[in-house]
Amino acid sequence: MGKLQSKISFHTTKYRADSSVGQTGPAGASRQHSAHTDAVTSVAALKPDLCVSGGRDKSVAVSSWRSGAALRHFTGHKHEVTKVTSALDSNRVFSASRDKTVMMWELHGASGPSQHFPGHDLVVTGLAVSPDASQLCTGSRDNTVCKWDTETGECLGRAAISRNLVTHLCWVPGEPYVIQTSEDKTTRVWDSRELQVAHTFPAKQHIQTCCDVSQDGRYCLSSSSGSAGHGAEATLWDLRQTRGRVCEYKGHFQTTTSCVFLPWGPTLAPSIATSSSDSTVKVWDQGTAASLQPEAQAGQKEMRHQDQGTDTRAPG
Fold first, then answer.
1. Residue 254 needs a FRET pair 20 to 30 A away by CA distance; which of 112, 131, 138, 308 works?
2. CA dist., res. 311 & res. 247, Å (int)
3. What is the domain-level CATH number for residue 217?
4. What is the pTM for the complete model shown?
5. Segments in the chain below pLDDT 70
């Protein structure tokens, strides 16, 4: 780990919202999806060419990345959808809502839910499904985390921790572990088999808003709230050596609302993306000194970019 901590460097590219971005254009241009009639609150990958989204309009939609078309709409929640998720390449979609419930939808089934998961006392704010889509973990502002059987809808376990206002959940690939962030400023690792906390990372100075796990299951990310340049960082944690953080990504000026590991492979260096209330998305390259820079599209304004990197070494 010493080599990783001392040699790694980070370069960022900052993307600012622009009125011309997102319009349907020539090949290679981004596509604008009109899947909801109100604000979109959550989006997740479903298949290589499909995504699922939830909105304030209480609906869940499945859209095509390629065509930009909304292929399915699911309705049944009584209030705003807060989170959506799916096991990759599965035909099952899950949604959480302010109506305190979670629902399961079949991609090729009816427009109504195929399963209900009631049981939380407040808005459901965390949602993670096992890789085989057989189990579901949910978290809420009621300080609880629950585990469910997706076939029967049975609650298999319920754990409560004082002040654990859940903000996000994600499942570790190939493992029985679930990562959870909280308003109590901590990131926890749950063992889903007994629904017990296996590890709690050192508390941060700000609320932890979101989490993600790398595709190899080795690292997890958490993002922080903040304002005026204080806080608002993302933090990289090693799930095998849990003594402290590996590094931090600083540069946002307001709350970092989400963080995600980007796909990588033999020709792509590991990198992450963060989004913020400061209206920016930043892409951080972990392995090379090269900055990820979007190419200007024909007929569009040039997108400003800026390199801002932080190499924060973990304590010895």
1. 138
2. 7
3. 2.130.10.10
4. 0.80
5. 1-33, 243, 265, 267-268, 285-316
